[in-house]
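We close this part of the discussion by returning to an individual protein. Part of our work consisted of pairing the sequence of a single chain with a tokenised description of its backbone. The amino acid sequence and the backbone structure tokens for this protein are reproduced below.
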Amino acid sequence: MSGNIEYYFSITSPWAYLGAERLVSICQKAGVGIRPFLIANISENGWITLREKPPVRQKYVFEDLSRWAKRLGVPLKLKDRAGLKDAAPAYRIVIAAELAGKPTLALAIALQKAFWGYGEDIGDPAVRAAVASKAGYDGAALVAAEEAPDVPAAFQKNIALATMRGVFGSPTYLYGKQTFWGQDRLDFLEEALARSPVEA
């Protein structure tokens, strides 16, 4: 087996969180690497945010999240989240780690688990520093590096690449010529990995 999975995802995506550890397990079994690209959702390619959807669709999403979390055995805290800050700036600590030459996927997963699994306020720099430190990183140093001008520039570069590659939402997995959107498509990705790279 050769090649890598290109993994495009957002820290704030609960679906990416639900599928992250399963993605790692699938790729480890297949002997395939993962190239993570942290992004925001891409409206140019057709993404519609949850806030833009009708209330009935929003209600369904939360019901479905709970079902999937139960099936996967993944902790998910959807209640009592009103006081949490916007978690979107948490991308900065992951990009700062990438620019420092550190592996980023484990950090991103730790942040997602803190936010979605346990309702921790990763929009707060002190909280994400603590999460990073617990995951084995120098959290204080990474938070200090978040303000470097090359951090948002690198993030925008990821988004531009994702747009060019036809990505519109999180999580998206690219393997060979195939695109798989959503953690509920990981079965299809696993099947593709079981075939030869030429067929992928």
Summary: The chain is about 50% helix and 10% strand.
